[in-house]
TrEMBL record:
The active site is at C2. One of its GO terms (cellular component) is cytosol. Gene3D superfamilies: Glutamine Phosphoribosylpyrophosphate, subunit 1, domain 1, HUPs. L-glutamine binds at D99. Keywords: Amino-acid biosynthesis, Asparagine biosynthesis, ATP-binding, Glutamine amidotransferase, Nucleotide-binding. Its EC number is 6.3.5.4. This is asparagine synthase (glutamine-hydrolyzing). It comes from the Bacteria. PROSITE patterns: GATASE_TYPE_2 (PS51278). Residues 2-211 form the Glutamine amidotransferase type-2 domain. Pathway: Amino-acid biosynthesis; L-asparagine biosynthesis; L-asparagine from L-aspartate (L-Gln route): step 1/1.
Length: 610
């Protein structure tokens, strides 16, 4: 797991611009605290920061085969052992035990069709010296971030926008389209907040040579007939989950599991604990909690119960060495922590304590472990969110997570000035994005109306919603040098479950039926029967009160650029609301306003709103 950066220029001698690639690479230091390296030739400069996971002494980068190709690589190929054996049979010689060298030799053997052989999470760039071209490749689900910025004579690229923005050719401009998507929460394909910058799409190859930039999609969600019966389907999910977790436990550094007490993380915990027990090891598990949350918990629109009792049940069942990271309102609302999160994400996402708590959890874990397995993405794969099962949301004619009533997604533009709202026209933008997303969904001949409708909902979550969450988790974890792996994003599992009929996904009358029954042998009864509960958020009114105080300080700055976007009167009114009775939408608005306030200070963006 690492951070990569690079610059291709067919009109500049980059050997005279080493200080620029060094600066771009240095922005990735948190992603790769263990080592740094650059590789510079007249038309290309590659930079790499390394977090050592496999073959600690042998996996240094950039990695090159003289006269053939050089590569910078971020991520993990979980099947690298099998690939190396196959490549060895084809005559390849290896000098290290790293998966990086396997991927490089895979490219030399198969070209960009190496992607058809990879199982993992990855973002890598290969400079092919033979053809003078750059090949950028991202994993199928978009687990690892990857951005590029076309220039008049080439391209800039990096794991994160900050690497690209460190190059003087890149401008920190945010236009109307960038701001629209930030506020809309639809995850438009290829979107970057920064004008002129693009994501390498999940399952996509971007090639750059003297003739220009070309893209090719090598993987997408295809509609396929599901022929397995219920028992066979459950057994297949169990086999896949077991194999995936076993593969993703491979590392030469300490590992752990993120345990929330929900079905998803508990299933991963149970499978991982059983595997490590076979090897004579005890699993470590970590959870985030809030001071007084269990004793004072109140059900809300998406959470019925506190996590702690279920976490204890899982830890006791599997015998893990468990640690709770308990946070208080002062830590969650600390402006310095907020600024660290903003720097990690490069965007003012406005998720407040759900972002700061994730960052602080990962920071605490990093003191004990370098690799963590997560239950992220199970809800998108198996249909777990409440809005999957809410008829109004499913039939709303828009993205279900936007139609479902909750503070995180509703009333997203209330904090904005009226003139900004009119320029953005978020309802129109969201409608256009929804139409575009639905148009990409493939269906089977003869599918029932219900199956077509739920295939659409599942597709939207796997191609849009999950990518927001994966980016959030990657940025927060890599900001502290922690690698988080996501077993539920294994493309074999995603393809298989995506094509099971909705009746099979809910065959016991509940959400995530397939996952529950496939992993019940490693679950306590309490978790097996628990209703879906998302990532926790503090209910302490002290957090809202702290936000209000910070907002009041911001309001005293008459000329702060944040007020070119934020409605000062709205902010003033909410800053006076009783924090005990403040709505979740109002608190989210305060978080968004404070994110924007600090983002302007950190990035000094140039706004171009037409």
């Amino acid at each position: 797991m690492c951070g990569i950066a690079g610059w291709v220029s067919f009109g500049t001698d980059l050997t005279q611009r080493r200080e620029v690639i060094d600066a771009m690479t240095e922005t990735m230091a948190c992603r790769g605290p263990d080592d740094s390296g650059t590789w510079v030739r007249p038309n290309v400069a590659l930079g790499h920061r390394r977090l050592a996971i496999i073959d600690l002494p042998g996996g240094r980068q950039p990695m090159a085969e003289a006269g053939l190709a050089a590569m910078v690589y971020s991520g993990e190929a979980y099947n690298f052992t099998e690939l190396r054996a196959e490549l060895s049979r084809r005559g390849h010689k290896f000098e290290t035990d790293s998966d990086t060298e396997v991927v490089l030799h895979g490219y030399l053997e198969w070209g960009d069709e190496v992607v058809d052989h990879l199982n993992g999470m990855y973002a890598f760039a290969i400079w092919d010296e033979r053809d003078e071209k750059l090949v950028m490749i991202r994993d199928r689900m978009g687990i690892k971030p990857f951005y590029y910025y076309p220039t008049p004579d080439g391209v800039l690229f990096g794991s994160e926008p900050k690497a690209i923005l460190a190059n003087p050719l890149a401008r920190k401009v945010v236009d109307t389209d960038g701001l629209r998507e930030l506020m809309a929460m639809t995850k438009a394909p290829g979107w970057s907040l920064w004008k002129g910058m693009h994501e390498v799409g999940p399952g996509t190859i971007v090639t750059v040579d003297r003739s220009g930039i070309r893209t090719r999609t090598y993987w997408k969600l295809d509609a396929k007939q599901h022929t397995d019966d219920q028992e066979t389907t459950v057994e297949r999910v169990r086999e896949l989950m077991t194999d995936i977790v076993h593969r993703q436990l491979i590392a030469d550094v300490p590992r752990c599991v993120l345990l929330s007490g929900g079905l998803d993380s508990s299933a991963v915990t149970g499978l991982a604990a059983a595997r490590l027990a076979e090897q004579g090891e005890q699993l470590r598990t970590f959870s985030v909690d809030f001071l007084g949350q269990e004793d004072n918990f109140k059900p809300d629109e998406v959470r019925d119960t506190p996590d702690s009792p279920y976490i204890r049940d899982v830890a006791n069942l599997v015998g893990s060495a468990h640690q709770d990271v308990v946070l208080n309102p002062a830590e969650l609302s600390d402006p310095d922590v907020r600024r660290k999160v903003l720097t990690a994400r490069d965007i003012p996402a406005g998720l407040g304590d759900m972002d700061t708590s994730l960052y602080l959890l990962f920071k605490a874990i990093r003191a004990e472990s370098t690799v963590a397995l997560s239950g992220e993405s199970a809800d998108e794969v198996f249909g777990g969110y409440r809005w999957f099962h809410d008829e109004a949301a499913v039939n709303s004619g828009t993205f279900p997570w936007l139609a479902f009533r909750m503070g995180l997604t509703n009333e997203r533009e209330t904090l904005l000035r009226e003139d900004v709202r009119q320029k953005l026209d978020l309802p129109g933008y969201i409608a256009d994005q929804y139409s575009s997303a639905v148009a990409q969904v493939e269906y089977l001949d003869g599918e029932s109306e219900q199956d077509r409708k739920m295939r659409t909902v599942c597709n939207l979550h796997l191609t849009r919603f999950v990518r927001m969450l994966l980016d959030r988790k990657d940025r927060a974890s890599m900001a502290v040098g922690l690698e988080v792996r996501v077993p539920f994003c294994d493309h074999r599992l995603v393809e298989y479950v995506y094509n099971t009929p909705w009746s099979l996904k809910t065959f016991d009358g509940r959400e995530k039926s397939l996952l529950r029954h496939a992993t019940e042998h490693v679950l306590p009864a309490s978790v097996r029967d628990r209703v879906k509960s998302p990532y926790p958020s503090t209910q302490d009114p002290g957090y809202a009160a702290a936000l209000q105080q910070q907002v009041k300080e911001a309001l005293s700055e008459r000329d702060n650029p944040v007020f070119s976007l934020v409605d000062r009167d709205w902010l003033h009114r909410v800053s006076e609301v009783d924090p005990v009775t403040m709505s979740s939408a109002q608190r989210t608005g305060l978080d968004r306003a404070l994110d924007l306030y600090h983002w302007f200070d950190l990035y000094s963006p140039e706004l171009q709103l037409d």
